[in-house]
Fold each of these.
Amino acid sequence: MPEQIDTRLLGREVTFGVSGPWLAYWLVIMRLVVGWWLLHAGLDKFASWPFDASWFIGGAAAGTSIGPFVTLFSDGILLSFTNVMIPLGQTLIGLGLILGALTRLAAFFGAFLMLFFYFINGETGGWSHGLVTGDLLGLLLFAMIATLGAGRVLGVDAYLARTAFVRDHPKLRYLIG
Amino acid sequence: MEQFNTADKIAAYLGGGLVVFGVVVIGLLEMLFGSGHPVDGEGQIVHEALVPLEVRSYIILLGLIVWGVYAVYRVVATTPEPVPAEP
């Protein structure tokens, strides 16, 4: 029997049924595939270490809309920080999504990362077939995973949510789930 | 019935509105009256566009920032609804 959704959107009553099992199923599939996307990207960079992002954040990013901010990280200690944080962040985001652990936190940072890829890749040629690219769709998937709390379905977060520590600190539910 | 509060509405309608406007609405207008491809394969900006690419980028970026700020606001300023006790 479908779960009934009753709410209001744009000032109108919205009522529709959602199949519970299919919703749970797609949340897991989405998490696994998007998680592997990032985990692979992160592990790949560690496998061919050292990783140098300077061509991207110093070269490609210059002249793009977000260039003035991103190029601040193109040399010195901020570049060294970025060179570690991109592969490490991608690996942790991927692991978080696949395991369903700290899913909302992982998805938030996934969307954050995609924001940079979307504009830098796009404005340097990626938008030659239009503005909807894999980076934008990835960003939207991360936002959906965070909004729906996909980690509660067959994920570590389902366990974490039941722990006394999380019950005593309800704000943590914004990071897990 | 759970509904959007004011902060939710700002994030959903302003953030989503800017993203949809920048990607979809301007995209359709460009297709009809301007340039369907805002950059070429080498990353050169196509200047025949109705809306300069930089302006379009900033509209989308602003929408994404609204969403991001809302996410941070939720974590910092609110507490999740209590979960119903398990049977």
Note: Chain A touches chain B at residues 6-10, 64-66, 108, 111-112, 115, 119, 122-132, 136, 139, 143, 146, 161-162, 170-171, 173-175 (CB under 8 Å).
Amino acid sequence: MSSDAIAIQTAETPGRPWVATLHEWVTTVDHKRLGVLYILYALFFLVIGGIEATIIRIQLMYPHNDFVSPQVFNRMFTMHGTTMIFFVAMPILFGFANYLVPLLIGARDMAFPRLNAFSFWLTAFGGILLYFSFLGGSGLYGAGNAPDVGWWAYAPLASRAFSPGHSSDYWTIAILASGFGSIATSINIIATIISMRCTGMTLGRMPLFAWMNMVMSGMVLLAISPLSAAQIMLLVDRYLGGHFFDTQAGGSATLWMHFFWIFGHPEVYVLIIPCFAFVSEIIPVFSRKPIFGYPVMVGATVCIAFVSMSVWAHHMFTIGMSSYANSFFTITTMAVGVPTGIKIFNWLGTMWGGKIQFKTPMLFCIGFLFQFLIAGLTGIMLASSPFDWQLGGSYFVVAHFHYVIVGGILFALFGAFYYWFPKITGRMLNEGLGKLHFWLFVIGFHLTFDLMHIPGLLGMPRRIYTYEPGRGWETLNFLVTIGAFIQGIATLVFVANLIISYFKGTKAGNDPWDAWTLEWSVSSPPPAYNFASIPRVSSRRPLWDLKHPEDPDSHYE
Amino acid sequence: MSTLESRLPENSAVGKLPYRGKIGMACLIIAESAIFTIFVVAYLFYLGKSVSGPTPGEVLETPIFYTICLLSSSLTIHLARKLLERGRRTGFLALWLVTVVLGALFLYGTAQEWHRLIYEHGLTISTNLFGTTYYSLVGLHAFHVTAGLILLTIVLLFGLAGRLGSEHSARVDVLSLYWHFVDGVWIVVFTVVYVLGR
């Protein structure tokens, strides 16, 4: 069958009823459509989580502010954290992985397309369930009431006695559902990468994007599962009268902390490794050089995954552990810095001597490099247990992990949007708006999160809904909130850019960046079957080989 | 730029990569192992920490017969899938049926034990920490046995309807992998609950 015949069957013919289009999207098992659904779903929750962050920041703008009540404040930071981790970061990264992994390894779809759809709808159901708690959190007789136990829901706060009603149950079940979705997607990604590669795509030639997403998926299997187990225990406690985390019956509140952070810390790497993947694809293309130290990058990624499974209790220094535990977790946490440092040097090595093009994706990646480095340095500070005894639970910690999540993860994600938007939609994102977005966001980000370290050092604890004047926190908090607004405006510029460019952007063509990986060999957006004929590759940069038959990479392998 | 696509060399031979079903099941087993590990850790951590009785030493009896049933079902399912591979469908069906029966016997054993604990010793999931951890761990395993039995039964029904041949042996292999995992977990649970835990 010729490729034209397939194309006619799947082409979007104009003038079809919207119900048919909707039906197609809801029932789709195509990895590209599911990827787009994941991304759109996550963007929707990004706006909601952003609004919650803004409410938190407005409340903290002045001392003794009463913009929201303490109860609402508790709900806001709980929902903000839960939403951003489970319903923004995870689905958006899975969205990109879903869309790109099969294209990058020369496959026509994921290994299990129907499981893929199931995972997405499970995750989507989780998010809806979490937000339904606003309406149904107190059962049928009360008004709604969102969870307010913090995103880590420490025992005994999450037990029946201290968290009556159903809000914590919505939290638990939402995370359980999305967790099963994440595990299923990870199984799918690993099976796809191991079993669906095209001819010649050996593990050593696979784009780093695929490598890193495979490592990330492996970590999800080992990190999300303990969280699911702990959530099942919490449900047993809340519904069946169990005593897992019930201290009065001999249970242990500390055990919940361990179970939560056995998930919680690897989770940070689950989120950042796909961002390493974006950066590892974008920096070489805009430096016009192949990635520096490919095997070392793969090794460092695996090493990070391995070491990061044994660092979780650095979140628990302040509860009082033995000196052996403190030393162990201090050393392992600092050890993660070594492979991470190797990566940063490799990205710099890629840029070194390259013909760097400062397009928007590259700008975001450079921002990522600087900010992720600083986030890593404050991480090393907090890894030292005596330092952590002083500053654990303060705004210094909040500043540190937002530096990782916003300065690292979000910047890399924005870079990925600018880089792959042309492939997904067929149109370029506007460069002018993109640069405006970048600079506004950089200014807002640094105003907010650089300054946020200082109230932490001055002793401002996290999760307080207001504070006394005269402690030297007022000006800083005011400026932090102003920075948050600037970031909000930058995000609006981004959303406007997405919408305007989707309809009015310049046509992208197959390969707008003159890149080297397989996704740029097909049309933009790619056809439903991805590749008319399954490609055969003979180097790490198959499109370079095509464009430069006189000097192909395969000569050097 | 559309010429790029056609210039990519055609794929003539399909490379030999591992079967995706097997990889998927291996990943599921890794994830499930992590879940069970957490429950086992909780069980061990809370051993002897109950503030009231009954204790494991007082009420638990080692289910040797039912353990032999479950473990030998691993052997029968292995032999069954070998027979299917060679296209010997009657032998496959017979051994597959034996596997289902052995699995069901094990579940019956668990049910009987729970009945005894609840009605004779008054131990429920909310009685004490032992009850909470015991029913969760053993219950989680029993849940996995139940899921496995449902899948085995579906295969059995397809087999009885004559819709199963050697061309399905790769898929049946994947299911047998899951069943081996369920058996392996039982060895851990058995050791933790009935050997170390008393």
Note: Chain B has one domain: 19-196.
Amino acid sequence: MNPVVGVAAFAAVSLATAVIGFYGLRISRTTGDFYVASRTVKPWWNASAIGGEYLSAASFLGVAGLILLSGTDALWYPVGYTAGYLMLLLFVAAPLRRSGAYTIPDFTEARLDSRAVRRVTSLVVVLVGWLYIVPQLHGAALAIRITTGLPAWVGPVAVVGVVCFTVVAGGMRSITFVQAFQYWLKLTAVAVPIVFMLLALGGGDSAAAELPPPSTANPTALAPAGPYQIISLLVALLFGTLGLPHVLVRFYTNPDGQSARRTTLIVLGLLSVFYLFPTAYGMLGRAFAPDLARSGQADALVLLLPGRMIGGVAGDLLTALVVAGAFGAFLSTTSGLVVSLAGVISQDVFGGSVRGFRLAAVVSALVPLGIASMTESQALAGSVGLVFAFTASTICPVLLLGIWWRGLTDTGAIAGMVTGGVLCGSAMVAGSVLGAAQTPSWLAQPAAWTVPAAFAVTILVSRATRGRVPRTMTRLMTRLHTPERPLATER
Amino acid sequence: MTRVRVTAPRSVTSGSVTPGSAASGSAALTGGRSAAASQEAAEESDAGQLFVRSLIRSQLRLGLVVALGFLLIMLAFPLVLGLVPGLAHSTIAGLPFDWVLLGAGIYPVIGLSAWLYVRTAARNEARYRDLAGDK
């Protein structure tokens, strides 16, 4: 493949990101701007931005790669990623917006009236963020290596560099515009090559005649997933989305609870449209590029397929587009996570100033860079799936019970987060020590037992410490669930 | 129906406001004409709390019903594929049926559930506003 294509595509995306970042710089001046865009972002912009931020390396590269590897079993990943937003809409979106807090630690502190809960939540949020950035950087390493032939470390370093630059320069306001742009970039980058590939197929004799049935063409000898694995994966994805720090922080940019719901509805539409395309790549890949699965390069399927099916200049151009989309995915998810982590770290460590926010942003991008350079890339969708399991076992119980259950106490919340974190964390460590082939499925997909365990511990300990229900609880529950005042006084 | 006002809980809760939590956003946005303070007091009275509790209950019930309905439909997909022999390998427009069902068919169900929820949740809130504002 022509190495200039990859470099040019990455340079173009980075430049566009930086330009939009600078454009945003002019409007963001106060601390409030830096954190949540002063809550004046319109639902369509906000929904595009949420979509842009959410569609990570796992969605852009990982889903197609996993479908190439394991066929219909992998179709549950995009379904779970999307349905997670449905759960977020049903149980979290509007109340969380009405809580008026900036970050998840802000929310738990206000709800439970406890500094200790805040500290534990902050720790978990930072851990989740770092775990989630690492696969993005692995994706960047893979993309740089495959498309340009440069050493793999160039990818992660470049991504972290661009992200630090934009976040430090513009804060959240410009991030919103950058993210919205990234969604449409990713959708274009993934959709246009598919159209051309299908046209190329149709230009042959007959598309249907050429396309071998993907379910029969199994490129690997992987056993099909059992019901336990599918259910556990769905538990992780459905409940994990609720607790993702970079997703939650977006809801604070909605003006009120109603518009938070409307935004989520649009996000669901945007995600549903997007995920049709990685699925199509996976399907075409099973028919036309099964060798990638055998050579362990399944995650590169989206990057390589257009060049394979359409040669020459057209193929190069389409490859450039896909590479641009992939880097858009790494950049947008990483910057979203860095912003939300910086918000948490700067408030807890640096006292919440703009300077502290910038410093915290650099810290929260450099640590995962170190981790990524020391670890090996696994299947992207799989490793992100594990982060969802971790979030579902730690933040999700506190968030759901905090919003809907009056009996939650600070002791219960801490006990639940620690239980879920320790159980799920040990399963993840055990899985990586044993290796993919040796890990039993209950360790490889731990969510089905760690999430109920975390819920049970949270509830039982809260019941046992009934006296610690904060006195502000009634007031806060009212605030979370009642519609905003201006609407109430209109009548 | 006669309404008994109990003043004790009001003074307790209004005395223990968390700093920063009450003053932000919503109250500041209220127009000058409206009586935000009296509205808040009404919410904290026993009758007000009754409305709030019933709102929370109905929103939770709505969320659970929609979630359960969606999960049942989603679980029905693989069951149907497994139970009806030959269905998974039949084709629609040249594409295998199981791929079409799982890869594209679930998304409209998600969208429809979400749309139904948003509509009904807004209706629940409108009903609450009618009740709470009706003095």
Note: Residues 3-380 of chain A form a domain with the Sodium/glucose cotransporter fold (CATH 1.20.1730.10).
